[in-house]
Amino acid sequence: MGSQTPPQRPGIPTTTTTTTPTLIKWVLDTRPLWPEAKQTKDLSSAAARALALLTPDERSGVLRYYHVKDAKLALGSALLKRLAIVRCAGVPWQDTLPGRDARTHKPVFRVPRSRDGPAAITPASASETAADRGGEEGAGGSGYDDDEDDYTEPLLFNVSHQAGLVVLLALSAPPSRTTAIGVDIVCPSERRTRDREMISREGWPRYVAMHEDVFSPGEAARLRALEWTLQLPLARTGAGSVTHAGASAGADTGESKGQDRTDVMLAHFYALWCLREGYVKMTGDALLAPWLRDLDMRNVAPPPRPPPPPPPPPPASTVTSVNAPATATATATTVADGATPPGLEIWLRGERVCDADVRLEWLLGDEYMVCTAVRWGHRDSSDNGNGTDGGGMAADEAEAEAVMMASPFVRLDVEQVLAEAEAAADGSAWA
């Protein structure tokens, strides 16, 4: 029973348990949810249906937040993580509670490996791995402990949330034990006014200096240099691309479209922040990593501005691609190009990192910026950066990974999420 896959639900394509890696990119907007809840305690009744799907400890974790907006983010995060486990591991809802990684202390989902090799995914075995439960974020890396040969992970998952949005990145059937994923979201509009006021009052160099301890020396220097490089005339380098002397090429910074220099500098700052967070979360070390200042992102630029959104469609599917025509579903979206900063290089302790795919893109128009980072686990230091490596990774494998990375985020409807979760909880999904 545990290895079966739930039937497809309208609007949310089902991910089956398979040996082929599949990347899931979901977004849930909690801002319009449960509007009658003015305080966190109001969620007990307003979001009773969603809270009923959680354990008592999970519910307490959600309801401990002072601000209702934060409680809604925690609730959405819990729902998305467990739904991803249902999809990728093919287990009932009650067996989807993550355990803790021994190294990072972040939630992971592991199942005992059968004596014959493949994972034995059953409701009982899944429950046994959840002895040490809880946590708000999904762990990016595998992070196996000393008993790693006894367990396997049918999926990796990572969650990020800010300003009402929850994003989840998950990878089913990770191809290697060194495979790792990370995701981070920032909302420039949430802090732009405050940041602009500070820059106007104290200057751009002071603004950079306030955050300098989380950047590499080279990153901080390049940020400071924006104040004078962006004063130079813009030079077109190709369709949808502008560059400044000494600045990153290949991305439309927006200055030619009416943004002032402060907004352009801040866009570079937010892009660097998001890229670093996504990469660090992929490693599983988070902000405790001793090498944070040795991580150097080069040629960083904000992604090209997205095109205007299409006109509102007639009611159809409840789940649509965020940046594609609303009649498209997750299986019919057009792969978006140009989101990754052209020429982006990642250096660590003086050596170039070539085993990670890192992508930066806008979400919901240009309201949010999201970084997705995946270390597939089959590349080595001889990787030439274009998707092939010295180990002879097949071109079609690299192409499939590139397509998955470029696929747009899929916006989920909470009613659809709850319906599928309830079906997985009461067993009707496996009937």
TrEMBL record:
GO terms for cellular component: cytosol. Residues 48-112 form the 4'-phosphopantetheinyl transferase N-terminal domain. Signal peptide: none annotated. Residues 1-20, 110-147, 299-322 are annotated as: Disordered. The keyword Transferase applies. InterPro entries: 4-PPantetheinyl_Trfase_dom_sf, AASDHPPT_N, P-Pant_transferase_sf. Pfam families: AASDHPPT_N. This is holo-[acyl-carrier-protein] synthase.
